[in-house]
Write a structure and sequence with these properties.
With 96 residues, the chain is mostly helical. The chain contains 5 helices and no strands.
């Protein structure tokens, strides 16, 4: 589980989970580049169209939420680990 948190691209997971992770990473980082081939790969790994749609909606909803709070300058809550909050501050400082 730790490898999923720290390095999802290289985490050792089953082929269905790999297809799911790759799809969600693509939706999160480069949604304009997602192709039908990625959807086909998920189908080939046993995901139904409904499961693919739900995966898409959940990933996109969280991306939208993050963009809303980031766009409003909402600070992270104190319960987040210091390393994550420091990285957020560093990224915001670079953007200035």
């Amino acid at each position: 589980m730790q490898s999923l948190k720290h390095d999802p691209r290289n985490a050792r997971v089953s082929p269905p989970r790999r297809a799911l992770l790759d799809y969600v990473i693509a939706l999160t980082e480069t949604p304009w580049a997602v192709t039908e081939d990625q959807v086909v790969q998920m189908r080939q790994q046993g995901f139904s169209d409904e499961a693919i749609a739900v995966t898409n909606l959940v990933a996109c909803f969280f991306a939208w939420c993050n963009r809303v709070v980031d766009g409003l300058g909402v600070p992270m809550e104190d319960f987040w680990p210091e390393a994550i909050r420091a990285r957020e501050a560093e990224v915001k400082n670079r953007a200035r």
